[in-house]
Design a protein that fits this description.
single chain, Lysozyme, two-stranded antiparallel ribbon, 1% strand
Length: 272
Amino acid sequence: MTATTRITKGIRTVANDIAQGFFEITHNGFALLGLAVMFAIITLVAHPEIRTESEVRLMGWLQDRHAPTASVNLEPEAIERATATNPQELPKQQAAVAFWLSKKYGVAPEPLSALVAEAFETGRRAKVDPTLILAVMAVESGFNPFAQSHVGAQGLMQVMTKVHSEKYEGYGGKLAAFDPVSNLRVGAKVLKECIARAGSVEGGLKLYVGAGNMESDGGYTAKVLAEYARLQSVVSGKPIQSIQPNPAVITPVVEPSAPPSVENVAALTQPS
């Protein structure tokens, strides 16, 4: 037998011994583990109070591990506070208006869809054309619900909150001016009153911007009517000129000096 053969045989013997020892240790370890588990089960069965205490401790440990995740304050219902609607869920005309305004004013279509839907519903109730409401909103704030002018006109419709504070009482107070839907409804009401007092849309817009006693309103009425005409084209599916940026003109709304006459309310035609 050569030296190489003896070395190889020796290595194999050592390897076999190691493997056998490892097997015996593992086997004995599993046997001990099995005995420990069996002993634990017998103990828990024989002593229910120990089992109960163990369950309480285990539950406490699991809750402690879960605590960091729970402290994040998850609010699945937060979506209910969002002023947003899927434009695909709107009627075809309203969806077209929402997408057109979104592209022109750089505002996400989802919140605009909610505003368009609310404008159509508010306009239906108030008998004011919803596209006129949206045109006023576009010129006044560019659809920024937190806009404020230097004289205190606030929100989407730039209503003078201090002047029309009583109109916000039904919405919880003056801070509702920064709730898009509340501001839209109050602004539509003020717009209707202005139109009623003036007896025409043009005159009502002049009152709305606070230029009722002035010769010129600075082009405000023309801007609103131009946007109104474009929105009417969108609703009817007619082609319109290419979209150009239309920066918001933030202007105040004043309270009419006399109560509006219901008999003179200008009934604007709803879009078909």
